[in-house]
Amino acid sequence: MTKTEFRYAHHPDDVKNYTTEQLRKHFLIEDLFREDTIKLVYTMYDRYLVGGILPVTGPLKLETIEELKSEHFLDRRELGIINVGGKGTVTVDGEIYELDHKEALYIGKGKKEIIFNKTGSGQPYFYINSAPAHHTYPTRKVTKNEAEIVQLGEEKYANKRTINKLIVNTVLETCQLQMGMTELHPGSIWNTLPAHTHERRMEAYFYFELEEGQAVCHFMGQPQETRHIFIKNHQAVISPEWSIHSGAGTSSYTFIWGMAGENLDYSDMDVVSPDQMK
């Protein structure tokens, strides 16, 4: 079964007036993983698509959706997948790729049949991002050992973290999609500090490995007009190009970031120091 939601883009002046309920309705994705379901959220921010796929009793095929007006899902798109659960498989036009925990797969434009399945007793959780594509690049699996690794933060600021750049242009070729995974070290709770915006790109965050009963306070909004959303494990949030995207958890956690937009320059950001935000 495929379940699709549609989200419009929002002007920052309007968002200033949103209640907590409205912020959550428009930007938070609460129920990404449902048994034997492909859950997709299509947003007008760079026409980015966020999804969760949970094959439990059998394989799930990624079909096109009404919003795409295409015969196949990837006729005009590229796709990034990161498995945040047990071992599973993704079959791309008959070729099988096995994805273990925290392994990624990039699928280029034009592939026709994408099937997700589990292997053995483990339960895969396939988190996906997709963006429009103008060119076809090869399908490629990326393990954590093949990722570009960056160490950031300091213990004294509670933001020591490891960034795993998985689907980025320094690892493989893409049109505009970029995805990676940031792992907070034990005792660290802050991500993406100093905060920043990048009006050339939108972004989406997916939080996982968050302990039961804990939460992340995700900060968004313009730097001088911030807002926050409390997020639980296996939930995602859409971040507009004008918005900061930072967070603090009640425990350590891991999150996946995905981006699309004007360029592929990971370092392109307009930094805002903590003492400048309001």
UniProtKB/TrEMBL annotation:
The EC number(s) this enzyme carries: 5.3.1.17
Residues at which Zn(2+) binds: H196, H198, E203, H245
Gene Ontology MF term list: 4-deoxy-L-threo-5-hexosulose-uronate ketol-isomerase activity; zinc ion binding
Highest taxon of the lineage: Bacteria
Xref: CDD domains: cupin_KduI_C, cupin_KduI_N
Cofactor: Zn(2+)
Pathway(s) of this molecule: Glycan metabolism; pectin degradation; 2-dehydro-3-deoxy-D-gluconate from pectin: step 4/5
InterPro entries for the chain: KduI, KduI/IolB_isomerase, KduI_N, RmlC-like_jellyroll, RmlC_Cupin_sf
Family designation: Belongs to the KduI family.
Main function: Catalyzes the isomerization of 5-dehydro-4-deoxy-D-glucuronate to 3-deoxy-D-glycero-2,5-hexodiulosonate.
This protein's name: 4-deoxy-L-threo-5-hexosulose-uronate ketol-isomerase
Species in which this protein is naturally found: Chryseobacterium hagamense
UniProt lineage: Bacteria, Pseudomonadati, Bacteroidota, Flavobacteriia, Flavobacteriales
